[in-house]
Specification:
single chain, alpha/beta
């Protein structure tokens, strides 16, 4: 319907508003928001998002912009420019669903990325699948060598948490920590995603 950019801006605005509200209640959480390829094409995107975050007194470095690997590598020159502009405004950049698209490691090393997110399709096979273990080890090592953070998606079992922690991945998201809940139920239910906090 041609409304993706408008919906995307509404989502970003609501995320910033909610993050600011939580911060007022002492919950200094970092908010992560997905952007679509269409949004990356917009002129002055970084400045516009910085203005929206600023409306709620939310520092840009408390907002992580998530882009899927396929989106990023599908338009490398445009993506690199847009991500550079977002980084210059202070936003953190995460590559979502890493390992499921058509990666270019040469391009990745030049991307202004702060976080690689290991896709749940690898995590769900841990710790028993040998190939999944090898792929996860490789992604964690890649992130470490690039000097960026690594987050595992879809962690649902204690065995997965222990494997990932032992492999060097200290951050995760998934049902092991919390199921999706409405914003008004978050306070008092937040559990740590830093996996070592659960040892």
């Amino acid at each position: 319907m041609g409304m993706l950019n408008q919906i995307g801006e509404w989502v970003f605005t609501e995320a910033c508003r909610q993050a600011a509200e939580w911060r007022e209640h002492g919950m200094a959480l970092t908010m992560a928001v997905n952007l679509s390829p269409s949004q990356l094409n917009q002129p002055y995107l970084a400045a516009r998002l910085a203005d929206l975050a600023g409306m709620y007194g939310l520092p840009s470095d408390q907002v992580t912009i998530e882009i899927t690997e396929t989106e990023t590598m599908g338009m490398p020159e445009l993506s690199a420019l847009a991500l550079e502009e977002l980084r210059s405004e202070g936003f953190l950049i995460a590559i979502d669903d890493f390992g499921t698209g058509y990666s270019s490691l040469i391009r990745l090393q030049h991307m202004p990325v702060n976080v690689l997110k290991i896709d749940r399709s690898f995590v769900e096979l841990l710790p028993h699948n040998r190939k999944a273990r090898s792929m996860v080890f490789a992604q964690i090592e890649l992130a470490r060598n690039l000097g960026i953070s690594c987050i595992a998606e879809g962690v649902e079992t204690e065995a997965q948490r222990i494997f990932l922690l032992d492999a060097g991945c200290g951050l995760a998201q998934g049902y092991l920590f919390s199921e999706p809940v409405p914003a008004n139920e978050i306070q008092g239910r937040v559990r740590p995603s830093r996996m070592s906090d659960r040892i």
